Amino acid sequence: MYSQVSSGCPGSPYSTCIRSTKYNQYESIALPIIKFLEEKGVVFQKNCAVTDVKLIDKSAKKQVSQLTFLSKENTNVIEVEKNDLVFLSLGSMVADYSVGSMDNSPPKKSLSKSVSWDLWEKTAQISPEFGNPSVFNKNIEKTKWTAFTVTFSDPLFFDLLQTITKRKAGEEGPVTIIDSNWLISFAVPNQPHFIGQPENLQFLWGYGLNTDKTGNFINKKMSDCGGREILIEIVKHLGFDEHLDKIIDSANSIPCTMPYITSQFMPRKIGDRPQIVPQISENFAFIGQYCEIPQDIVFTLEYSVRSSQIAVNSILKTGRKPTPIYLGRRNPKHVFNIIRTAFR
Predict the structure, then answer these.
(1) In Å, how far from its chain's centre is CA 300?
(2) Domains (ranges, CATH) in the chain?
(3) Tens-digit pLDDT profile for residues 121-152
(4) How many other CB atoms are there within 10 angstroms of residue 118's CB atom?
(5) Residue 227 in contact with residue 253, Cβ under 8 Å?
(6) Which residues fall within 8 angstroms of residue 68, CB to CB, at 6 or more apart?
């Protein structure tokens, strides 16, 4: 049995109220912004990682005076000048990921904290205002999942799926196989999903939340499966058994294990996520998924963007407000649709 996840809008359970980009979010949003900034003279230093932040006291506040970073295995230092501002991204939901292949599971890694988490842990020791990263990165069993992508060179799977959902690619909400031991969900985005994607290729992505359970049809943990086995499990759940061989022959499925991917949702208390601009900050702000934005929803592009808006507007005192948070739960019509979908 499958279910389409409610989006909490009049079109529920379909994604008619979800604003989807033409292509994937990186090529639709990040690349144009990078190009715009480069044209304005912004310099992006790639393949490097900030490993430490030096803060000095300034009256009753703290000021970033120095950044240490690794580049090509060399340690470098940036001296922060008087009028410089520093925006620090804390933690990482995709840190320590590992990628498999059609016939190989993602390799098991011994987790050595990535620089993103290590930086936050160092910074958090300076002041309680800087949050508590251990709340989010110490319980991998509850924060990991196995994701996967599937690229098809034959439209058969998409055509069969459309007979169930009655929607074309990009129109239906995420599909959750509620009987799946792995609790698989997958989404079929707008096609093409990538700039330059050949017309004969179709793409979807998904994930399983119960990665350490044995599958319903594949007698292995999801985390021990290659892409072929994950796709077989999906095909059998959807009842496309008679087309299995043709679907598999036309597919390339790549699994990926991400140990911190749902860490933002871990139980927390006030103060575990730092304020975007801490009270003791003189010249810095925090941005990303692990800073505090009341009533906003993590795991979204909007959360990261809004954190940056708040950081820039606050520290520069522009007087501008961030993009308003949409509070769909206050709309009775949307609440009704959610309840109707949940109990249909």
Answers:
(1) 7
(2) 3-26+145-258 (3.30.9.80), 45-94+112-132+270-329 (3.50.50.60)
(3) 999 999 999 999 999 999 999 999 999 999 99
(4) 18
(5) yes
(6) 50, 51, 52, 53, 54, 75, 76, 77
Binning pLDDT at 50, 70 and 90, where does residue 194 land? very high
Q: Is the pTM of this model over 0.90?
A: no
Residue 253 near residue 228, CB atoms below 8 Å: yes
What is the CB-side half-sphere exposure of residue 196 using CA atoms within 13 A?
Answer: 1
Q: How confident is the model at residue 167 (pLDDT cuts 50, 70, 90)?
A: confident
**Cα 44 to chain center, whole Å?**
22
Span 61-113, pLDDT tens digits = 999 999 999 998 899 999 999 999 999 999 999 999 999 999 999 998 766 66
pLDDT tens per residue across span 267-314: 999 999 999 999 999 999 999 999 999 999 999 889 999 999 999 999
